[in-house]
Write a structure and sequence with these properties.
Layout (H helix, E strand, L loop, with lengths): L8 E5 L3 H12 L3 E5 L3 H8 L4 E3 L9 E4 L4 H9 L4 H4 L5 E4 L5 H13 L3 E4 L2 E2 L1 H7 L2 E7 L1 H14 E8 L3 H29 L4 H9 L6 H11 L10 H17 L5 H11 L16 H5 L9
Parallel strand pairs: 1-2, 1-4, 2-3, 4-5, 5-6, 8-9
Antiparallel strand pairs: 6-8, 7-8
Helix pairs in contact: 1-6, 8-10, 8-11, 8-12, 9-10, 11-12
Length: about 300
Amino acid sequence: MTFSTGSLSIVVIGLGQMGGNMALTLKAAGFAVTGSDVFEQARSRLAAQGLAVVAPDALPASDVYLLSLPTSAHVREVIEQSPGLLSLAPKGSVIVDTSTSDPAVTRELAEKVTAAGLQWLDAPVSGGPKGAASGKLGMLLGGDKTTIARVMPMLEAMSAKRTHVGGPGSGHVVKLANNYLCAAHLLTTAEAVAMAAKAGVDPAACLAGLNSGSGRSAVSEVNFPEWVLSERFDSGFTTGLMRKDLRLARDAAEQLGLPLPLLQAVVDAWHANPEQPTDSDDFNHITTPILAHGSQTEGNQ
């Protein structure tokens, strides 16, 4: 059965920048939404914006439990810790994990969720807080087609693009692959722009050239003009989270016995100096020390 917007109840667990905006977007779309977070400040902030909120020990029965949490450990805690969703969630309800999680943990939890008579969908997202607030996220879906069909009205309200990549855990595998490429592109694009700047080419002109050719990427087309060259650095995604995702990608490759030297080099580069940038800095700040090398131009003026 596919739920209609009016009949689908959703509990959003984790009311940070992503989860809070997703909750408000779903509420605006007509869903019955309740939010929950371990931090009272987060609950108060969303309550002030008109969202129904409850403490974690007072989760109501719901059709869907949408998780937006920092790590796999937090996801495991919400699902397994007594009383967790394994015991609280009504039979047949769907647990949707939008976090960027460890695929091995995801598959383990998905088995337990299914064994408990619930349904699972990993649905990591891209697009940042802005995409969550506008309902224009990108989603990578790992789970059964029947589960996706059940919650499709919710997914359509949250996202501009949805890609089903396989069974449980597959969404998180592809999300880690995506974030690895994003992290690598930030480094390589920064080096390319620094090289051009050192040779006397304006960074904006360099980017325009790159974006007209095969070297372009989402980083050169979006991140650099939006957050790097503007020096706004307010994407809503931290360096610490990207470092975590890179470690997860490296660990996944190691578990598969797959040597990926470029991935390891990117992991090393992002962890080379924990103070520049710090974990709390916007992740686009990884470009700052690289671009500084090209700030003094010489050569072709």
